[in-house]
Amino acid sequence: MAKVRPFLAAALVGILAGLVGAAFHALLDQADQGRDLLRTGLEAAPVPGWLVLMALGALVLCLALWLVRRFAPETAGSGIQEVEAILAGEHGLRWQRVLPVKFVAGVLAVGSGLVLGREGPTVHMGAALGQLATERLGLDARQGRTLIAAGAAAGLAAAFNAPLAAIIFVTEELREHFEYSFAALQSVILACCLAVVVSDGFLGQGPALPLPPLGLAPLSALPLFVVLGVLVGVLGVLFNALLLGSLGRLRALREGHAYLTTGVLGMALGALVWSAPQAMGGGEGLVASLLQGHPGTGFLLILLAARLLTTVGSYGAGLPGGIFAPLLALGTLVGVLFDHLVAGLAPGLGLGPGLFAVAAMGALFAATVRAPLTGIILVIELTGALDLGLPIILTCLGATFTAEALGGQPIYSLLLAQGHQPPPPPRAPWRRVLAAGGILVALLGLGRLTAPEPVGMLDGPREGMASTESPAPLALEPTGPALSSRAAVGPGPDPGVAPSDSSPPQDAIPAPAPEGREPGGFAIQLLTVANDAGLAAFAQRHTGVGQFRILQGQHRGKAWVALLVGDYATRSEAEAALTALPQDLRRLKPLVRPLAAGTRLLPVPTEAKP
Predict the structure, then answer these.
(1) Measured distance CA(169)–CA(251) in Å, rounded
(2) For labelling, which of 26, 296, 314, 436 has a CA lying 20 to 30 Å from the CA of 263?
(3) CA 392 to chain centre
(4) Which residues are CB-contacts of 421 (< 8 A; sequence separation ≥ 6)?
């Protein structure tokens, strides 16, 4: 029985980590939808919506910071470096405080829209569950360290539905403090498997970022992935330096000044959620939309700069949240930009952005965390792109060699070393506040930019930059029960568009109410696009454009315009239709939006307004 006891404890930790991870993930998904609903609801409010969001952002972030500083300062940041310190015996783990503070403050921080990932908190909470089991089951110190490592791995596995990557992460990142033995390794594997089984039972199975088949990269194109890895390696070193500098400036602030800075950050967050929502959040939805759309190069460059600055600023606030998910989004942006470069220099290759984006995801992780095996396996599990194993490996090698040559260090080692240093003498926050204000003014312009082909288009990935053919129309065949609607008749396709065999069936998604009708009720909001130019591009690319509508008053003077579909009498009908959407549309996180009485639904403009 003594030999079986540690495995039973590991199984218990895995189950608990799966439950906590699933609950954390579900609450963050609800927070994402809540932000969108609040933003759309404030469009008709008697006070400026951006002002309300700025006030709420400051309030939520200051509350999260108060929870961290008052009850558990060790819950700030990712938590992975904390787990390393605990396994090294530098200090203990106060699970009674870490679990509630990391969960609640993590939901507030990540759910508010900060550019942070959910994996850091789930790793730290999983380790805390390992400490809880150790104390409650009376295990010795050696077994306790194994359970803490198993809980951390289970938390990562539940966050990304990536058990193999979590196992590799523990053995690669925590190799200096992990005791390799049969019992220890089997405990980690058991905890990761059970955590994924439990979380999948609540959240569903399958890759967290499923992609359509991308095909094999030709052997002649493999050197391009090495070049991409070199570029990503440079970005990884820059990212680590910026992140460390941001945290150092936070540590130099007095207590009251830290709250002032966090309040300014919250105001910037609210303004960006209002004007440029695609620039905020962990980035999973952004990854999906980038790989399905055709954003312009200028838009991508500005979005890359915005995501880099907001990631560094978000983590530098000292609130619970990880960097894995933001790194994946940054890597995707670099990969799509590199595809634009390759398409301009060698248009005949026709590789498409998906190949480079997936490879750059793993490479940026490898360059910053310096855990290439974990980066390779994590990206393959996240996307299901097993055919891209060799390009991902080459890109990760190029990134890690470049980061090493530039003198870069693993980010968690840097964070751990910074925590051992005494804080610098207190300084006033004015420079930081002024810098944050300048960055805010620059980033607010992001929402006013007009991308020729904006992020969030619903068509499939390109087959190559050289292609000039329009992609196939959007197929909206439901995967579940037929969708129902109160509007029995809706306008057909745009005149002048010749029907084709690939046109979507008119009853795939019911047409909303005719123009001028006062429906009330509910509709499904699929996504937002930028300005009239984005709406015009959408109309030109899809023959089924007659099925989509916007709200009256949204087609002029709005930075981001919501695309709606359907007209339902009750929320239950709309939710049933939402679940019947194809998986590629559900991945965009559509939401059920209430329509007030008197709301008018207008056709999508087919031409950009001057």
Answers:
(1) 29
(2) 26
(3) 20
(4) none
Beta bridge partners of 527: 563
Residue 592 pairs in a beta bridge with 524
**Any idea which residue has 């004015």 for tokens?**
430
Closest CA to 195 of 126, 99, 102: 126
User: 267 exposed, middle or buried (CB, 10 Å; 0-12, 13-18, 19+)?
Assistant: buried
For tokens 């990760």, the residue is: 396
User: Which amino acid is located at 109 in the chain?
Assistant: A
Q: Among 351, 384, 342, 377, which residue's Cα sits nearest to residue 362? A: 377
175: number of Cβ within 10 Å: 10
Q: 103-141 burial string, b = 16+ CB within 10 Å, else e?
A: bbbbbbbbbbbbbbbbbbbbbbbbbbbbbbbbeeeebee
- Using CA of residue 256, residue 258, residue 261, residue 265, what is the dihedral sign? negative
Q: How far is CA 123 from CA 155, 311, 345, 563, 581, in A?
A: 4, 19, 43, 37, 32
- Cα 360-362-365 angle, rounded to 5 deg: 105
Paired with 530 in beta bridges are: 560
State residue 393's pLDDT score: 94
At residue 593, φ and ψ (nearest 5 deg) are -115, 125
Q: How far apart are CA 523 and CA 72, in angstroms?
A: 43
Percentage helix, strand, coil for the chain under 3-state DSSP, each rounded to 5: 60, 5, 30
Given a contact cutoff of 8 angstroms between Cβ atoms, the answer to whether 246 and 353 are in contact is no
Report how far apart, in Å, the C-alpha atoms of 588 and of each of 152, 281, 335, 382 are.
29, 13, 20, 16
Element spanning 200, H or E: helix 182-203
Return d(Cα 571, Cα 3) in angstroms, integer. Answer: 53
Please tell me what DSSP assigns to residue 75.
G
Strand partners of residue 253: 427
Helix (H, G, I), strand (E, B) or coil at 522: strand
- Reported as half-sphere exposure (CB side, CA atoms, 13 A), residue 126 has a value of 40
Cβ 389 vs Cβ 376: under 8 Å: yes
Residue count of the chain, please give it: 610
Residue 92, classified by CB atoms within 10 Å of its CB into exposed (0-12), middle (13-18) or buried (19+), is exposed
Question: What type of residue is 225?
Answer: F
**Among 262, 259, 231, 242, CA closest to 333:** 231
Alpha carbon separation from 250 to 18, 118, 312 (Å, rounded)? 33, 22, 12
pTM beyond 0.85, yes or no? no
The token duo for 36 is: 């969108």
Ranges of the chain whose pLDDT falls below 70: 1-2, 212, 251-256, 278, 291-295, 348, 350, 419-520, 527-548, 551-562, 582-589, 596-598, 604-610
Structure-derived torsion over alpha carbons of residues 8, 14, 16, 20, reported in degrees to the nearest 10: 170
Amino acid, res. 115: V
263 C-beta neighbours (distance < 10 Å), count: 19
CA angle 195, 197, 200 (to 5 degrees): 105
Q: What is the 3-state secondary structure (H, E, C) of 503-520?
A: CCCCCCCCCCCCCCCCCC
For the chain, helix (H) and strand (E) counts, in that order, are: 21, 5
